[in-house]
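FAQ

Q: What does a record look like?
A: Structure on top, sequence underneath. For example:
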């Protein structure tokens, strides 16, 4: 989040190009960046632990240009996301 706000720079060389692309995309929208503690961002935390070092990108099965998570992992992510959304909308 701090990188997207422009407070910190992206140090990882392989992420710098992606960061530029993300900043360009978000410039097209009205964005508000908010910190969500890890305990209320479990879906993202879970996905980050699944991400392999080889750069594979996982997505929902409806998005055909990425590898698809195995069904049991997709269900777990959807459960975690529902809990994260529940917390976000209740605060």
């Amino acid at each position: 989040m701090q990188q997207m706000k422009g407070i910190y720079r992206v140090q990882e060389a392989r992420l710098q190009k992606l960061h530029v692309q993300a900043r360009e995309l978000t410039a097209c929208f009205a964005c508000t960046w908010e910190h969500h503690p890890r305990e209320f961002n479990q879906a993202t935390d879970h996905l980050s632990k699944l991400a392999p070092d080889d750069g594979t990108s996982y997505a929902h099965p409806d998005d055909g240009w990425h590898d698809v998570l195995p069904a049991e992992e997709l269900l777990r992510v959807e459960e975690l996301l529902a809990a994260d959304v529940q917390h976000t909308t209740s605060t």
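Q: Is there anything notable about this one?
A: The chain has two domains: 1-35, 37-91.
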